[in-house]
Amino acid sequence: MKKFWLVFRNEYLRHVKRRRFIFALLSMPLFFGLMVGIGILAVAADYDSRPVAYVDLSGYFKNAQPAPHTTDSLFPPLVIKPYSSVDQARNDLENGVIQAYFVIDPNYLDNGMVDVTSRDTLKDATRQDFQSFLRYNLLLGQPAPVANRVLNGPDVVVQSLDTNRRMASNEVVNILLPLVSGLLFIVVVNTSGSYLVQALVEEKENRTMEIVITSVSDQQLMSGKVAGNLAVGLTELLVWLLFGFLGFAFARRYIPGAQDININPDFVVLMVATLLPAFVMVAALMAAIGSTVSTSREAQQWAGLFTLPIVIPFWLIVPLMESPNSPLAVAMSLIPLTAPITLPLRATFTEVPPWQIATSLGILVLCAAGSLWLAGRTFRLGMLRYGKRLAWREVFRKAE
Q1: pLDDT tens-digit profile of 94-125?
Q2: What's the CA gap between 199 and 372, in Å, rounded?
Q3: Under 8 Å CB-to-CB from 293, ≥6 apart: which residues?
Q4: Do both 92 and 57 map to the same domain?
Q5: Which of 86, 175, 229, 294 is the most buried (most CB within 10 A)?
Q6: Which of 154, 181, 214 is the last residue of a domain?
Q7: Rounded to an integer, what distance in angstroms lies between the CA atom of residue 152 and that of residue 105?
């Protein structure tokens, strides 16, 4: 067991200390950070700190109050000032004291007419803040539950006909979780799996394998390498999830409406339960390929083929969403390479029968164990072959 941990530690540290791993580790957070920064700049470009004025000709907003801000904001709330005359508002607009002024029509309650005057194009944020100001004051005399319901709008819940599956409007983000996790799964598999394949081929090419195998068994070596590369992939994934959690916390605090977003923990558990054995299975299969080929280039070509079946659910996402209980969807939930994305995606739109979940997870675990066995066997048969490929028929013939 001690030798296993030595192989594990060496394999893990060798990859995480490489510059390309650090670059890959930080590239995803930096990319999303750049996107968030661009979004903040876009919001800043649509923000004007100068106050606005309004002239109430209807008399309904004589004692108007500022609309409360229920969330923190990166920018101060818009100041809305009442003016007694249009001439006074026009004069302050010409002097740059205010950015715009609104004139509320005398028959506003009947026609809803509001005229706005500004020297430049009115910012969308300014228009939205003034509309919120009007709505809030129109509802001041109403009971709190009525006012809150009108301001917050309806809570639309989608009900499935064939099951009791329900999804509220604030749970729409759960649809994106399987897709985002699938993309991360593909990236992590390709990066960490390629590390393992390349390391195996390089050790065969430079004859390091001859030295290593004298002090550690082939099973300990292969298990340590697979576990080490699994830890590399999990490190990458955990760092990305940490940045994603921080970004989500930032959004919930500063972006209006983000506080109502709910993430179903059942989806998270199901995704983790499917992704972990699937990752072990793919990593072990890549290790098996690395043991059979003779060059790094050939190994990379074979390893790239694993990406094709994994992305199939993305190609068929429309029929999967429209018919989550169709034979196609059920079959893709049971196929090991498509289950990590298909099963959580189906669970978003319907209640997947427990036997299907248990069967899918059982197949994934069995395939992961079988892949580890296959990786160990191919490694044992092909570890000392130089310049010659190990035919797959030899692997299975020996296993008879």
Answers
A1: 888 888 899 988 888 888 888 988 888 888 87
A2: 17
A3: 201, 299, 302, 389
A4: yes
A5: 229
A6: 154
A7: 26
